[in-house]
């Protein structure tokens, strides 16, 4: 990661965030990429828990996520690409605390770049903590030379300014010396300085992870920021488990005199497979063969690892079993539900931030289209998130069927939920026995007659919804879709009449 202080020096600016904020992002980035800073001889490898946490959060957040524009919108294709990429930039945001959604115009069309937190530096915030000044870093490698472009966005005297500067260096840690933008074909068409008036919002949208930052800084915290210590403990414990497995491999210690000598090489030799089982020693006058087969302590080692993993899951806001083996610990139904609710709360909060950032992105795209004279129409997307994380769809379907059977809900409502159809379509799907009607059929119940009798019996004036519900119950009872007893119970509960009065109302459905 390029030194932020060097960037500030090149642009002659003062950065509002401390160096600690940049160091945290570097540590998160290293852990996410599978190279945490604690790898050593004793911890030679990693379980990749940082990546797993960010990836799983992104998967849950964008599971069945849908967002669409009207089919005739000029930005329809662009928006479809943005939503298709949602798992990618959500994972970046989860790993590093946030991601920039930055639209740009390439002379032909508008595209959106997803800039990770280690590739931009905030330079100014407003009173609400929103980033209103920012430097974006883009690096290109050409042979041994590394080129870096700094794109600096800020407001100066109510004018929105964007400056672009290019630098060249042989080191990936330093920017190096300034060079013209024209040195690279990719940057040759970029203006060094641009001024824009009447720009109300910065030309980017920041998707920030919800929750308070550890140091109070606005950019946001990684979903695994508080679990970094547990990730190290887990990697260390996993290394112990692997060492335990290797150290307890069965072996046979054999005296060198037990092996046949290789006449050509004038020494005793073992095949590659035998060498793993037999260990040659000069035992002298002691035993010529000795078996080595200690008992592995895998159960205790795995239990320790699972304990660490469950704590890491808690700190990441994930349900138990995401990393750990949830079957190894007895859990009550209440504990399992609470664990899922914690994960749901995490995901729901991130989904709210995602929707908010995408709405801001639509405003930025419209602003950019206005600057370049591009017709974008109205960019008003719909948003729909899946709730299967906390809702068991199969169990919910069974409950709905039971409620239909008990006459508590209409069959068409079940079909609407089950197949995603409209009420009109659901009614056409129903067989006649359930009150399904063709377009030519007339209702078998006289609405005014039901309304008059019901109001007379209850002594109250009924609204349209109450009358419609009552007619529905009477119709289903008359058609045999529900039993008379169920219909009577529903009417008594809903309208506070006696059983005899409920039966009189049901009599209106006789043909």
Description:
- Helix content is 43%, strand content 18%.
- The protein is an alpha+beta fold.
- Among the domains are: 228-316, no CATH class; 393-509, no CATH class.
- The strands form 5 sheets. Strands 4, 5, 6, 7, 8 and 9 form a 6-stranded antiparallel β-sheet that branches. It has a 3-stranded antiparallel β-sheet with strand order 3-2-10.
- A hairpin with a 7-residue loop joins strand 7 and strand 8.
- The radius of gyration is 34 Å and the shape is flat.
- It starts with a helix and ends in a 5-residue tail after the last helix.
Distance between the termini: 81 Å
**Biggest sheet: strands, sense, closure?**
6 strands, antiparallel
What's the total count of β strands? 16
The class by helix and strand makeup works out as: alpha+beta
Low-confidence stretches: 437-444
By DSSP (H or I, 4+ residues per run), the number of helices equals 16
Outline: flat
Average pLDDT over all residues? 83
Report Rg: 34 Å
Helix content: 40-55%
- Percentage of β-strand residues: 15-25%
What distinguishing features does this structure have?
511 residues, six-stranded antiparallel β-sheet
Any chance you could write out the topology, listing elements then pairs?
Blueprint: H1 4-11, H2 19-32, H3 49-62, E1 66-68, H4 76-84, H5 86-96, E2 98-105, E3 110-116, E4 120-125, E5 131-142, E6 145-156, E7 159-169, E8 177-179, E9 193-196, E10 205-208, H6 228-247, E11 251-255, E12 261-262, E13 267-268, H7 272-277, E14 278-281, E15 289-292, H8 298-316, H9 333-372, E16 382-384, H10 393-405, H11 411-419, H12 423-429, H13 447-458, H14 464-479, H15 484-495, H16 499-506
Parallel strand pairs: 11-14
Antiparallel strand pairs: 1-16, 2-3, 2-10, 4-5, 5-6, 6-7, 7-8, 7-9, 11-15, 12-13
Helix pairs in contact: 3-5, 3-9, 6-8, 11-12, 13-14, 14-15, 15-16
């Amino acid at each position: 990661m390029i030194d932020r202080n060097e960037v500030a020096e090149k642009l002659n600016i003062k950065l509002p965030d401390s160096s600690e904020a940049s160091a945290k992002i570097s540590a998160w980035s290293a852990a996410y990429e599978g190279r945490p800073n604690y790898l050593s001889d004793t911890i030679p490898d990693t379980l990749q828990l940082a990546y797993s946490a960010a990836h799983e959060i992104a998967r849950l957040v964008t599971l069945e996520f849908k967002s669409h524009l009207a089919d005739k919108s000029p930005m329809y294709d662009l928006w479809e690409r943005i939503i298709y990429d949602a798992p990618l930039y959500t994972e970046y945001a989860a790993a590093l605390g946030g991601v920039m959604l930055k639209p740009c115009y390439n002379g032909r069309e508008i595209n959106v770049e997803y800039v990770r937190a280690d590739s931009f530096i905030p330079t100014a915030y407003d009173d609400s903590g929103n980033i209103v000044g920012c430097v974006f870093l883009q690096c290109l490698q050409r042979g041994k030379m590394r080129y870096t472009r700094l794109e600096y966005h800020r407001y100066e005297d109510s004018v929105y300014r964007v400056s672009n500067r290019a630098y060249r260096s042989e080191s990936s840690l330093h920017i190096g010396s300034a060079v013209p933008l024209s040195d690279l074909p990719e940057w040759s068409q970029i203006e060094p300085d641009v001024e824009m008036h009447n720009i109300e919002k910065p030309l980017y949208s920041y998707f920030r992870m919800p929750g308070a930052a550890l140091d109070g800084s606005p950019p946001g915290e990684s979903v695994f920021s508080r679990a970094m210590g547990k990730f190290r403990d887990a990697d260390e414990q996993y290394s112990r488990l692997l060492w335990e497995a290797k150290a307890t491999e069965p072996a046979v210690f054999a005296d060198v005199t037990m092996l046949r000598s290789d006449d050509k090489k004038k020494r005793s030799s073992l095949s590659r497979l035998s060498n793993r089982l037999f260990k040659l020693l000069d035992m002298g006058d002691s035993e010529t063969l000795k078996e080595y087969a200690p008992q592995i302590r895998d159960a205790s080692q795995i239990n320790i690892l699972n304990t660490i993993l469950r704590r890491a899951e808690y700190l990441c806001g994930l349900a138990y079993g995401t990393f750990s083996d949830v079957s190894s610990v007895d859990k009550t139904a209440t504990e399992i539900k609470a664990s899922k609710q914690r994960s749901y709360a995490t995901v729901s909060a991130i989904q709210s931030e995602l929707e908010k950032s995408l709405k801001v992105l639509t405003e930025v795209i419209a602003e950019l289209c206005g600057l370049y004279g591009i017709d974008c129409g109205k960019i008003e997307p719909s948003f729909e998130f899946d709730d299967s994380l906390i809702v068991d769809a199969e169990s919910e379907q069974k409950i709905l069927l039971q409620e239909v059977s008990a006459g508590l809900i209409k069959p068409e409502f079940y079909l609407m939920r089950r197949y995603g159809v409209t009420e009109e379509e659901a009614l056409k799907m129903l067989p006649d026995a359930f009150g399904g009607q063709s377009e030519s059929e007339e209702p078998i119940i006289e609405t005014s007659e039901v309304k008059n009798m019901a109001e007379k019996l209850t002594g109250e004036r009924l609204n349209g919804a109450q009358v419609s519900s009552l007619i529905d119950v009477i119709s289903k009872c008359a058609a045999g879709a529900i039993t008379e007893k169920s219909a009577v119970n529903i009417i008594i509960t809903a309208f506070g009449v006696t059983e005899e009065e409920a039966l009189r109302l049901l009599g209106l459905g006789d043909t």
